[in-house]
Amino acid sequence: MYRTLIVDDEPLMRQYLNNTISQLDPEFHVTGIACDGLEAMDLLRRQSFDLIITDIKMPEMDGLALTKYIFETDRKSRIVIISGYNEFEYARLAIRYNVSEYLLKPLSDQALSETLLKVRESLSASASGSSTSISRHDYTEDSDKEITSSLLHALVLNDKDQIQLLYNQVTSRNLVFMGSYASVLLICLDELHLLLQEKEPMEYSTVFLTFHQCCERYCKESTNTAFVDPENTLVILLSSDTEKELDLQAEAVYHEFCRAFWPHEAVKLNASFGYHATDILHLAESYHAARESLALTLEGVTSPIRSNYYISQHNFITKLNMICDSIAMDFISQNTDKLISDLHLYLTLFQTSVNTAVLLRYGTYLIRFLVKQCNIKSEILQAAFLELTRGADDFIASGAFDNNKIHSLFYRLIRILDNKESFVLIPETTNVVEQAKEYICLHYKEQISLAMVADTLGVTPSYLSDLFHKNIGEPYTKFLTRIRMEQALLLLRSNPNEKIYRIAEQTGFVSPKHFNAVFKKYYGFTPTEYVTQPEHAFGKVSRLPSI
Questions:
Q1: What are the DSSP E strand ranges found in 232-316?
Q2: What 3-state class would DSSP assign to 305?
Q3: CA 229 from chain center: how many Å?
Q4: Residue range 19-33: average pLDDT?
Q5: 3-class DSSP state of 277
Q6: Which of 20, 131, 226, 347 stands 20 to 30 A from 464 (CA)?
Q7: What percent of the chain is modeled with pLDDT above 90?
Q8: Helices (H) and strands (E) in the chain — how many of each?
Q9: Are 484 and 507 within 8 A, CB to CB?
């Protein structure tokens, strides 16, 4: 997946690129959006991108100045410039700054698709450059253990070219790669226990480095095929002639690693193993299932997490991924209103009554998810973890885990990841609006009115109505409808089998008929059309949730 930054001062162009890029080429995923060069520079200081698509003429800082900055600070990123015909000569000046391609206005899907293909080929060629020498000698100089480990690595990461080369080596050497059944076991650090021990930043780094050393030693000394993936997780191939024996083997290997290779008994390790595979090409599915299973540590499940338990918790994991993906998109698109609402949905995932461990687990998971999805740099990550532990200390001191306060803490974590300080001090009028928005996002399922919200905040309805118009640019009723519609769409996506009347109830409508009418007017299609014919529904969409 290639992480993409969009830089354009036109909202419609930003929305077009954000909605279209992944559809035209799924290898590209938008992980950053900026309105001008200055915002883009701020993002580039915190995140890394494979591709940057920027307009050439923008206020504050134009695309040419931005490409110069990228050229001087990060030569690995590919840059695509958008320019008008009358700007083309101006855009050509950027050739010296390593611009990859140009897109001329007005843009077309075909031109954008062709450009993405060229950039993808360039990125792919660059990535494979470091392994060219290995490919030339076809791994003939590698040991049997190195060959099988490399094959496992290629299989789980779906590197088709390397799979064939390595499989040829395995068969030519008559090596046994797997038995009748196989599964992929993952072992990683339990970050919650690190947080609970309140270690200094240097100590955290030491633990991570020690874990990596232990994993490397296991890969060399163990008879099992294994490697360490890019997320610092030990990946081990389990192989057996029976499925029952495979489960027992997972338990034994996990406990053996903890006992014989891991010196820090006070720091726990998490583990999970994926589907049982009978085909070598299905090991990637086993790996991804094991990776997703690690999310079940949110429930405090004992390691190693079994594949059959993962299957039983599929609905929870689907909902978790759906909400976290939505929060990541809110983060990328700077949609504060929807972020506030989606964070309330995130809190509904708590499986048990909230305590310090639950707070830290869900906070850590959300931070890690956003860091991975948006490629946020490590120095920002440390500040977010520090705020999480401070927040946990405050809850312990007060003895009360209030949902609104937890929501506020998680919102602060995201603002820290976004490197913004605006949540610390805000003007009084803005504060009233933010409180009103937060109240609506918390109570949109109920029959609330402008007067009720105003009364809760201690202001008059006319004053609050005026603040909505001035600060949000839309009346209270439209804001409430927007929140309800966005949540309705999220509920339909996460559970398409849910009855329409239940969706209506969960989004504050008194009748399914009224819900259907509002949904149809807002999106251009009915809830039933969206569920039964999603492609048809998207084809005639008249309005999508704002970004």
A1: 234-240, 269-273
A2: strand
A3: 18
A4: 89
A5: strand
A6: 347
A7: 17
A8: 26, 9
A9: yes
Helices 428-443 and 476-494, interaxial angle, to 10°?
40
Q: Which two tokens stand for residue 99?
A: 């611009």
Is residue 162 within 8 Å of 154, Cβ to Cβ? yes
- Pairing of β 181-189 and β 234-240: antiparallel
Rounded distance, CA 60 to CA 58, Å? 7
2 and 50 Cβ atoms separated by less than 8 Å: yes
Domain(s) of CATH 1.10.10.60: residues in the chain: 476-539
- DSSP states along 39-67: HHHHHHHHB--SEEEEES--SSS-HHHHH
Shortest CA distance to 306 belongs to which of 183, 192, 190?
Answer: 183
Whole-number CA gyration radius for the chain:
26
DSSP assignment string, 200-214: -HHHHHHHHHHHHHH
3-class DSSP string for 318-337: HHHHHHHHHHHHHHHHCCHH
In CATH terms, 2-129 corresponds, of 1.20.210.10, 3.50.50.60, 3.40.50.2300, 3.30.70.100, to 3.40.50.2300
Closest CA to 271 of 293, 289, 287: 293
- Report residue 230 CA to chain centroid gap: 16
H or E element at residue 34: strand 28-34
Which pLDDT tens digit goes with each residue over 376-414?
A: 766 677 778 888 888 888 888 877 777 788 888 899 888
CATH 3.40.50.2300 range(s) for the chain read 2-129
- CATH 3.30.70.1230: which residues of the chain? 178-309
Residue recorded with tokens 């569920």:
531
Between CA 36 and CA 86 the distance in angstroms is 20
Cβ 55 vs Cβ 63: under 8 Å = yes
| Residue of higher predicted confidence among 263 and 92 | 263
The answer on pLDDT for 117 being more than 70 is yes
Class of domain 476-539: mainly alpha
Residue with tokens 């059944």: 181
Q: What is the pTM of this model?
A: 0.56
CATH 3.30.70.1230 fits 178-309, yes or no: yes
Q: Is 74 helix (H, G, I), strand (E, B) or coil?
A: coil
d(CA 505, CA 511): 8
The distance of Cα 326 from the centroid of its chain, to the nearest Å, equals 9
Question: Comparing C-alpha atoms, which of 82, 60, 64 is closest to residue 72?
Answer: 64
Q: Could you please report the per-residue DSSP string of 150-161?
A: HHHHHHHTT-HH
Residue with tokens 């110069």, as numbered in its chain: 68
How many other C-beta atoms can be found within 10 angstroms of the C-beta atom of residue 112? Answer: 20
- Angle value at C-alpha 429, between 427 and 430, nearest 5 degrees: 65
Closest C-alpha to 101, from 125, 124, 77: 77
Contact 23, 35 (CB under 8 A): no
